[in-house]
């Protein structure tokens, strides 16, 4: 068998600039399937009872299909994505197919954010993805930031086009072109819209979810009469993202302002949520830009104010993308695979029926179906894995790897007792296992809901603790260098120049992730210049 | 004022092959706004009471911003889209910006279909939009059908690409590339997925919603072990589309099979729903294809069957797009503008508060707000137009033009009586107006719900009657020609050749829309050849 095979070649393939060779993926798939099969066989043959299988998981870690985190974080990440069937590689270098299980997480993200956007007065709409090349050139820093990453359509309907078309990398330019036609008076403001769309950036180093040539996102765009209103909007949206990260994804992001160097191409100010991944690298997980009047001046987006004077509008834009799914994987996952926060998990509860003798089958399946109906009726996302091709042990591993928060086990003795066994994904072994939970609908639903809430907050607490253990206050550049070399985030007073900031990047690989909103009190001295500093900044290596 | 201005130049601009000149659109916008203002002024000045304004609508038709249907159907269509703010033109020829009110209709379509797709076992996912050019060439009739319409990316990240990338016109090729990697055994079948995505087809003659260079759609793709299963799936999906059209959009489509000439490039059989628009042209509003093994043979998509033998999978694909919104506009709209079926209307009920004296304002607005809350709590999509810049008369016209099914009017006398006035969008004048409907929540909600259901079925009945008046059974080619020249659909027994079918198209402009599932009984004789025919076909001019 292939149990001892090393890492499969996902890493190198995704980074390779060449289109995949045709035979490559099917080899990988077969490899993956066979490895699963090996886990199944091992689990089934080495144990006489299911309790043994479940309790035995640690000793079987070496048989797993997933590279241990400690061995190679990147390989672990790619293994989780492949084995949990979250995504696969598209035929064009750097593109990604989002598979149903991964897409269901995206749908959960959409459902939550869509509601929040509408509650705060935004309407969904849709802009074309083809942008005349000349538009991109109108805002000077915007073109500088995006022109190296553009995909260009030059042929349409068999003919060379007069003007090249940009496949949108972001939509500020085309949005402003339209806003200019829709906005006339102060009564047309604020104009607050959002679109869910695909965007394309010709990235050289790609990684599933985190950085792909094409990705899905939402992009909000607003126009306001005053600087203050636009600032309020930009802050409101980064606050919605922050709450989403904490409450839904259980990711304790650090929210703050980007440095000038890291500000979005064309913005006055960029606000960001920065998440610490399991390898302690930072992931920029969402941004909200105060665009000032940069685009309105470039596109002539003006309104007549209450005094009858013509003014340029003040604007914002803000986005969260499928990259966030990468953040969820890398925040919560462990050696067993994915671990999903209950609020976003496509399957919150997996039911595994267990029987040995044929005469036990019907009674167990009936009970399992009834339990499923009770939970489902209560709005819990539940799945019953009643397939007969796999042993319960194999299913335990499989759904654990898929990150399902709770597992309900039902065997003949449970049915006789009117109870079930419930295991938490986030607490391994006996400690996470509760026996004798009543099958009676009210009791069971209450128990499951309480546990789901418990898991949601346990994931957040664990992530907060991990984050806080790995952010260090430093008071000199040497200390900063040391912390970064240890893989940590360094927090320090900072008022030095852009040039100094770039020097830190060159010498340590770390960048300013943000000036956090949450600032320590008291006088501060810049670690680089010794001058007074108004704020602390957080430096870290990032994706 | 600009009341007497002729058609604004939407028609020619959208069809023009050149990118719009920069100044054009703002002129159009101003024009549109001024015309509205003129309606407002007229309504406000010519009437001493609101009843007069509302009852006076017919005489004001000439002041409307919308070209009468009888005068120019295409101009009427474009006026409705512009004035109801459903969509606007993108900067690139043939592209369209879907504005919030239009997008909300799309969201209603998505909500309904998404549920039906999931209920029937399909999962959402996402495929990349860039397809290697070589993929398109693999299925012979597919490349022939699509190659004239392709948009090609030739430059990425500043470099000429080795292989041109097709911006997806449809995804069968890339789907099969991936299915080939995911499907191994009969246990992997059926594989049933769907994606909501944008697609690009380089159309020369474009029209908002109906035919645009880029559009939004859902495309379902499935793979099955047998011909029968794929056939069942293709039929199941056209059935879901048919039910959607009748029950949600109130569009009485004719469902049937396409002729060989009109079958999708790469399919064995195409099923279609054909809708009759207000100008009696046919709109292909949704299709479901049985692809047979055409793509699986081209891409080597095989599985091991229960006997251990390798077989090619049988496949389907099916789609509905934003074109459907054009179908809704052109089925139900009238000279006053849009008319939306309640099930898909973003706003089902508009509340217009009416007061003259300042001391009446608060009491009317309080009552209006309370009515809004009652309806909203009952799940009715309701909006209160409490803006003070417009007269009630202007608002009546505006929301009528936006196609809102029901209007609730509340004035001081109504508040005193504890009642409201309710008007139906689909029944003009006094006949559609009910006075003295109690404000009490239970009574009001019941009344509104009953009326919404009534409007939904009235729209369908009216459309069925219109459709049936305009389909003629013909028994000779001369009769067919005459019916088509009168703008009607012609139904006739047909067993002639593809060549004969193309001859009809050349000579009359009509094509076979479908061989309807609903076939008359009895022996049939082909109108072209005099040979026996198994089926009747429907010929019509189409979009």
Automatic annotation (TrEMBL), chains A, B:
CDD domains: ProRS_anticodon_zinc, ProRS_core_arch_euk
Gene Ontology molecular function terms on file: ATP binding; proline-tRNA ligase activity
Alphabetical list of InterPro entries matching this protein: aa-tRNA-synt_IIb, aa-tRNA-synth_II, aa-tRNA-synth_II/BPL/LPL, Anticodon-bd, Anticodon-bd_dom_sf, Pro-tRNA-ligase_IIa, Pro-tRNA-ligase_IIa_arc-type, Pro-tRNA_ligase_II_C
Coiled-coil ranges from the UniProt annotation: none
Gene3D superfamilies in alphabetical order: Anticodon-binding domain, Bira Bifunctional Protein, Domain 2, C-terminal domain of ProRS
Annotated catalysed reactions: tRNA(Pro) + L-proline + ATP = L-prolyl-tRNA(Pro) + AMP + diphosphate
Keywords per UniProt: Aminoacyl-tRNA synthetase, ATP-binding, Ligase, Nucleotide-binding
GO CC annotations, alphabetized: aminoacyl-tRNA synthetase multienzyme complex; chloroplast stroma; mitochondrion
Listed name of the protein: proline--tRNA ligase
Organismal lineage: Eukaryota, Viridiplantae, Streptophyta, Embryophyta, Tracheophyta
């Amino acid at each position: 068998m292939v149990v001892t095979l090393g890492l499969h070649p996902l890493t190198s393939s995704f980074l390779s600039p060449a289109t995949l060779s045709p035979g490559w993926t099917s080899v990988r798939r077969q490899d993956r399937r066979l490895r699963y099969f090996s886990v199944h066989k091992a689990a089934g043959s080495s144990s006489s009872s299911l309790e043994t299988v479940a309790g035995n998981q640690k000793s079987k870690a070496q048989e797993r299909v997933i590279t241990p985190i400690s061995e190679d974080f990147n390989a672990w990440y790619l293994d989780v994505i492949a084995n949990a069937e979250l995504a696969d590689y598209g035929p064009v270098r750097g593109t990604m197919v989002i598979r149903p299980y991964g897409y269901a997480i995206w749908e959960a993200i959409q459902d939550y954010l869509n509601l929040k956007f509408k509650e705060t007065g935004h309407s969904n709409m849709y802009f074309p993805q083809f942008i005349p090349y000349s538009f991109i050139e109108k805002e000077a820093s915007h073109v500088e930031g995006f022109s190296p990453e553009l995909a260009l359509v030059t042929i349409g309907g068999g003919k060379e086009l007069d003007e090249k078309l940009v496949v949108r990398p972001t939509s500020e330019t085309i949005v402003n072109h339209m806003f200019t036609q829709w906005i006339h008076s102060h009564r047309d403001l604020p104009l607050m819209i959002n679109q869910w769309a695909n965007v394309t950036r010709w990235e050289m180093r790609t990684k599933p979810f985190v950085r792909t040539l094409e990705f899905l996102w939402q992009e909000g765009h607003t126009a306001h009469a005053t600087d203050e209103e636009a600032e309020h909007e930009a802050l409101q949206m980064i606050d919605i993202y922050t709450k989403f990260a904490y409450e839904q994804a259980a990711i304790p992001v650090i929210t703050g302002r980007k440095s000038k160097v890291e500000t979005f191409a064309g913005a006055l100010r960029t606000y960001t949520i920065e998440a610490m991944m399991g390898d302690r690298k930072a992931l920029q997980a969402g941004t909200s830009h105060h665009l000032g009047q940069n685009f309105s001046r470039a596109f002539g987006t003006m309104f007549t104010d209450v005094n009858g004077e013509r003014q340029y509008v003040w604007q914002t834009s803000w986005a969260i993308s499928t990259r966030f799914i990468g953040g969820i994987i890398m925040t919560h996952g462990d050696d067993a695979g994915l671990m999903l926060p209950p609020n976003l998990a496509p399957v919150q509860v997996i039911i595994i029926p267990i029987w040995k003798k044929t005469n036990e089958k019907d009674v167990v399946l009936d009970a399992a179906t009834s339990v499923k109906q009770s939970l489902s009726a209560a709005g819990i996302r539940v799945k019953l894995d009643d397939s007969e091709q796999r042993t319960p042990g194999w299913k335990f591993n499989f759904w654990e790897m898929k990150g399902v928060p709770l597992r309900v086990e039902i065997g003949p003795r449970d049915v006789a007792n009117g109870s079930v066994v419930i295991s938490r994904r986030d607490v391994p072994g006996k400690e996470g296992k509760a026996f004798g939970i009543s099958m009676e609908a009210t009791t069971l639903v209450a128990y499951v809901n309480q546990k789901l809430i418990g898991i949601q907050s346990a994931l957040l607490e664990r992530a907060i603790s991990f984050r806080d253990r790995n952010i260090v206050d430093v008071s000199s550049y040497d200390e900063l260098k040391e912390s970064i070399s240890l893989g940590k985030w360094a927090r320090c007073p900072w008022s030095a120049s852009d040039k100094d900031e770039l020097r830190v990047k060159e010498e340590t690989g770390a960048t300013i992730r943000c000036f956090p909103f949450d600032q320590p009190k008291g006088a501060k001295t810049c670690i680089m210049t010794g001058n007074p500093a108004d704020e602390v900044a957080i430096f870290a290596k990032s994706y």
